[in-house]
């Protein structure tokens, strides 16, 4: 096999692995929404529940725990009576900010494109 082709195939395989890792860490119904809620400010558990009313308490706990295990979210217990728990993006989690900016732009462009398409076809989506 040609050396250049072998390098291309290896690069493609590494890209597949990297994309798969990203999907593994950020995939699922709630993780991106949770991270988005934490981009601008620290939130307490119940604030996150109110921001995402369709998520169950069990699922919220599980998703936050997984994000914390990946080093994207920090959990801080505030000794009070009763204790309070706050969640925020870690320094590593802050590296996702550009991803959210791209997603915001893409979503806005997609909505405009979809609205334009519906306008031309006369069909609502």
UniProtKB/TrEMBL annotation:
CDD domains: HTH_ARSR. Residues 15-115 form the HTH hxlR-type domain. Signal peptide: none annotated. InterPro entries: ArsR-like_HTH, HTH_ArsR_DNA-bd_dom, HTH_HxlR, WH-like_DNA-bd_sf, WH_DNA-bd_sf. Keywords: DNA-binding, Transcription, Transcription regulation. Pfam families: HxlR (PF01638). SMART domains: HTH_ARSR. PANTHER family: TRANSCRIPTIONAL REGULATOR, TRANSCRIPTIONAL REGULATOR, MARR FAMILY. This is Winged helix-turn-helix transcriptional regulator. It comes from Paenibacillus enshidis. The lineage of its organism: Bacteria, Bacillati, Bacillota, Bacilli, Bacillales.
């Amino acid at each position: 096999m040609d050396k250049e082709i072998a390098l291309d195939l290896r690069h493609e395989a590494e890209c597949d692995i990297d994309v798969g890792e990203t999907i593994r860490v950020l995939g699922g119904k709630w993780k991106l929404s949770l991270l988005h809620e934490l981009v601008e400010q620290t939130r307490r558990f119940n604030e996150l529940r109110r921001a995402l009313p369709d998520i169950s308490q069990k699922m919220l706990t599980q998703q936050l725990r997984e994000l914390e295990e990946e080093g994207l979210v920090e959990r801080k217990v505030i000794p009070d009576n009763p204790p309070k728990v706050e969640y925020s993006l870690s320094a590593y989690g802050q590296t996702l900010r550009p991803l959210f900016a791209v997603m915001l732009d893409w979503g806005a462009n997609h909505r405009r494109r979809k609205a334009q398409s519906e306008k031309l076809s006369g069909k609502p989506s």
